[in-house]
Design brief:
The complex is a heterodimer. Chain A is of the alpha/beta class. Chain A has three domains: about 100 residues, Alpha-Beta Plaits (2-Layer Sandwich); about 210 residues, Rossmann fold, CATH 3.40.50.261; about 180 residues, 3-Layer(aba) Sandwich (Rossmann fold), CATH 3.40.50.261. Chain A is about 40% helix and about 20% strand. In chain A, the strands form five sheets. Chain A has a six-stranded mixed sheet with strand order 10-9-11-12-14-13, with helices on both faces. Chain A has a six-stranded parallel sheet with strand order 16-17-15-18-19-20, sandwiched between helices. Chain A has a three-stranded antiparallel sheet with strand order 1-3-2. In chain A, helix 16 links the parallel strand 18 and strand 19. In chain A, helix 1 runs antiparallel to helix 4. The longest helix of chain A is centred in the C-terminal third of the chain and has 18 residues. Chain A is globular. The two termini of chain A are about 50 Å apart. By secondary structure, chain B is α/β, with parallel strands linked by helices. Chain B has two domains: about 100 residues, no CATH class; about 170 residues, no CATH class. Chain B has twelve helices and nine strands. Chain B has an eight-stranded mixed barrel with strand order 1-5-4-3-2-6-7-8. Classes of the chains: A alpha/beta, B alpha/beta. At the A-B interface, helix 1, strand 2, helix 2, helix 6 and helix 15 of A face strand 2, helix 2, helix 8 and helix 9 of B.
């Protein structure tokens, strides 16, 4: 069958090696692309490409400072897809920004405001040391602020929030990764329809999970206000959570309010409960450790999924009904039986390898409630179940976040597969703006390799995942789910259900102490 | 335009010292990466601006604070002006890098001592336990090139060494082709043992004379810059730290820590450099490939 060889030459452009390697890997998995190479056009590399039959006249004319992208494809269509992928990858890489007119890119807040008359919100992402000053400039200019930056001193956060409140403005963050304001997604957000549920959250991936599940249930989000992970501490005192609730309480589009928090301080939690009691709209609250219950005018939800489904029920005037699994008990038993029947007696432990911090902590809590000896942040291997948040700073130093690049998680998947005690690999796959364009596809090669490795050792691995996203996300949720399922991954409707299933499989293995139950 | 950020430059590689001392110059941003900026300075030489605990190249300026995060917040683009006036480097008129407190880092090029086989063994172990593969290893002729280089070094054969080196330069993936990284590692090894191992110093001189002439035609500008400095005995601090850790006696943790820092450089650059260094030392110290002699 005749093959098409296609070369693109990017002249005099530098891209770092991480970008180049990622592009090579992405090209190699495009349907219809047989081989791909991305190399500087040095004489030696041109000879390599020539010997491999991958060099065209265009590529041969490249200089040592030019970048050659060489693709062998089945047909023009596949080459075209490859070409689009190259353009997308290199245009999002910072180093190709040289082709854009620099005069149109504002470098200060003042010049940005000149270019965009009427702007009323500034998204700030500069080093923590300087973020406070930039946020203050924005507040003084009358702008709401979403402060993506972390490492902002807590005193600065308190000062900024007080100044914002004095001006009637929102100060979202610092360390605020997700928000949807008036239908505009900011940071790592998903494409969800506008609707009747308003969310206020001190948790990024928690906000994503809840807003996506509301969307999946056929409802939408009026506002999703991220307040920053520290807002509910007693130091900050929930300054912005209180303001967010005031806004949602009077927002005509908001009929039900969802609140997501991370371990609130004692006095802040007390004030929050008092405020919730005053709100004349139904409220559902999820903070770690809270059990499902009605607490007067508001109700507590034990998981992110329950928060979403309770909000949906309340908005429809229905009684919330907590669920453990969407599937029937018999179906779950069948999945567990199928997963465990070929496992080796030594396989016992769940290895949770997470990109989302809140999702990791939710899984940790659910596993700890069901299994003994569950630890956070313990690498694959060793005695006990583990959940690792690979988005934590210690793992991302000098590397992209696992929501953007799965390289680190692939390494951990392989490491977990090499451990003969690993029974279940538990994963989250997060979609939306800013996330990897194909996070499932990014993980699948490692999952295939892990499965092969386990099989070679006479073992069988169970891989359980949840996909946080919507059909309207750039990655399309159903495509991601299909791709995972096609490779033997059990995809559950939510992170909570995935964690419960993983715990169920492990519990089954512990059941007789040695062999899986039939 | 009002400056929005002022930061201190903590350390400068010896290679860029002239650009911090001569008359004012104006260059421009050559590339913006996720965690660093590459600039041209006077005489079109390169400057690499980054943060971290060690200088990552022989033409680095190490900047304090969270420079990498700042790169995501400020839309730097290629071609923006970079100027040095007095004790300040200004980037795109927005960022001022102050040079008053900058210490100059000098590669220990005069240091040449016995290398500890145990330390080399720890280095190989650290490299292998990382589970990562270098860019050179992904090429179809990687084994042949590596073997040719190793044989030429072991035999102290000038012509073969030059031929093997020419095979390496500009070969493989990456902005700095993997072969260049491997060669820089080899050169670091040669500098480390040039006075203690017969023939090492002579090979360095031969490579220096033969390679400089057509370096720019053979590899990328960044790769050529690394090799050019390496031939003069000027290396990245992160590579020097590994070389120093291999000198006897060295605690295994010191070796592991230094190697781990080097391996973290780029996607494969650190691995290829490490492979080059260890291949060179194995060959010249007559240690079987990857399996250093054990004390009995």
């Amino acid at each position: 069958m005749p093959m098409l060889i296609w070369n693109a030459v990017h002249k005099g452009v530098y891209h770092d090696s991480v970008t180049l390697m990622r592009l090579t890997r992405d090209l190699q998995v495009v349907d219809g692309v047989q081989r791909a190479a991305v190399m500087m056009g040095t004489p030696s590399n041109r000879a390599l490409l020539r010997d491999a039959g991958l060099l065209t006249l265009d590529g041969d004319a490249a200089s040592p400072n030019d970048l050659i992208i060489a693709v062998e494809a089945d047909d023009l269509a596949a080459a075209h897809v490859g070409a689009q992928m190259v353009e997308a990858a290199l245009s999002t890489s910072r180093s190709l920004m040289l082709t854009r007119p620099t005069t149109c890119r504002p470098r200060t807040l003042r010049s940005a405001l000149t270019l965009l008359d009427g702007a009323n919100l500034a998204l700030i992402s500069v080093p923590g040391l300087y973020a406070g000053l930039e946020a203050l400039k924005a507040l003084r200019a009358g702008l709401h602020v979403m402060l993506f930056s972390d490492h902002v001193p807590v005193a600065t956060e308190i000062d900024l929030k007080r100044q914002a409140l004095a001006r009637g403005l929102l100060m979202l963050g610092p360390d605020c990764g997700t928000a949807i304001i008036n239908g505009v997604p900011l940071g790592f957000a998903n494409v969800v329809p506008r609707g009747r549920v308003g969310l206020a959250a001190a948790s990024g991936t928690g906000l994503q999970e809840v807003s996506c599940m509301i969307s999946a249930a056929g409802e939408g989000v009026s506002q999703a206000i991220g307040v920053g992970g520290r807002d509910l501490t007693d130091e900050v005192g929930g300054l912005m959570m209180a303001r967010a609730l005031e806004i949602l309480a009077v927002d005509p589009a908001t009929e039900v309010i969802g609140v997501l928090g991370k371990s609130p301080g004692r006095s802040t939690w007390g004030r929050l409960q008092s405020q919730l009691a005053q709100i004349r709209k139904p409220c559902v609250v999820h903070v770690p450790g809270l059990v499902s219950a009605a607490a007067g005018s508001w109700c507590a939800a034990a998981t992110l999924e329950e928060t979403a489904l309770t909000a949906v029920a309340l908005v429809r005037g229905l009684k919330p009904t907590p669920i453990e699994f969407t599937m029937s008990r018999a179906e779950i038993e069948a999945i567990i039986s199928e997963a465990t029947h070929a496992m080796h007696p030594g396989q016992r432990f769940v290895r949770g390898l997470y990109a989302g911090g809140t999702l990791a902590y939710e899984a940790l809590g659910l596993l700890q409630a069901r299994l003994p000896n569950v630890a956070l942040g313990v690498p694959g291997g060793g005695e006990g179940h583990s959940v690792v948040d690979l988005g934590e700073e210690q793992f991302t130093l000098g590397r992209p976040h696992p929501m953007i690049d799965g390289t680190l998680r692939r390494e951990w998947i392989l490491r977990a597969a090499e451990d003969p005690a690993t029974a279940v690999i538990l994963l989250d796959v997060i979609l939306g703006y800013g996330a990897h364009p194909d996070p499932a596809g990014d993980l699948l090669p490692a999952l295939e390799q892990a499965t092969r490795h386990a099989q070679a050792g006479g073992r069988s691995l169970a891989v359980v995942a949840s996909v946080c996203g919507t059909e309207l996300d750039p990655q399309r949720r159903s495509s991601q789910v299909d791709a995972l399922r096609a490779h033997g991954v059990t995809v559950m409707p939510s992170n909570a259900q995935a964690a419960r299933l993983a715990a169920g499989i492990a519990a089954c293995l512990i059941g007789d102490g040695r062999r899986p139950r039939r | 335009m009002v400056s929005i950020v002022t930061m201190n430059v903590i350390a400068a590689s010896a290679g860029v010292r002239p650009f911090l001392q001569i008359a004012p110059w104006e260059g421009q941003i050559a590339a913006v990466f996720d965690h660093s900026i590459l600039c041209t300075a006077a005489a079109e030489r390169l400057l690499h601006l980054h943060t971290g605990s060690r200088l990552a190249s022989p033409f680095s300026l190490r900047v304090e604070g969270d420079f990498a995060t700042m790169l995501h917040g400020i839309p730097f683009v290629r071609g923006m002006p970079v100027r040095r006036i007095d004790h300040t480097i200004t980037i795109a008129e927005d960022v001022h890098l102050r040079l008053e407190r900058t210490t100059s880092y000098q590669s220990p090029r005069h240091l040449s001592e016995d290398v500890a086989p145990e330390a080399i063994r720890h280095a190989w172990q650290t490299l292998r336990s990382s589970g990562r593969v270098g860019g050179l290893d992904q090429l179809p002729d990687a084994r042949a090139i590596g073997s040719a280089m190793r044989r030429a070094l072991a035999d102290r054969h000038a012509a073969q060494l030059l031929e093997a080196t020419r095979q390496l330069i500009g070969r493989g993936p990456g902005l700095t082709p993997s072969g260049d990284d491997f060669l820089v590692g080899c050169l670091r090894g040669l500098w480390l043992i040039r006075r203690t191992v017969p023939g090492a110093g002579r090979m360095l001189d031969q490579l220096h004379d033969a390679l400089l002439a057509d370096l720019d035609a053979r590899t990328s500008r960044v790769g050529a810059e690394f090799i050019r400095y390496a031939l003069e005995g000027i290396f990245a601090e992160v590579l020097d730290q590994v070389a120093l850790a291999l000198l006897a006696p060295s605690h295994p943790q010191v070796v592991r820590s230094a190697v781990t820092h080097l391996l973290a450089q780029g996607e494969t650059s650190g691995i290829d450099t490490m492979l080059g260094l260890l291949t060179c030392l194995d060959a010249l110290l007559s240690i079987p490939e990857g399996r250093p002699r054990h004390k009995r």
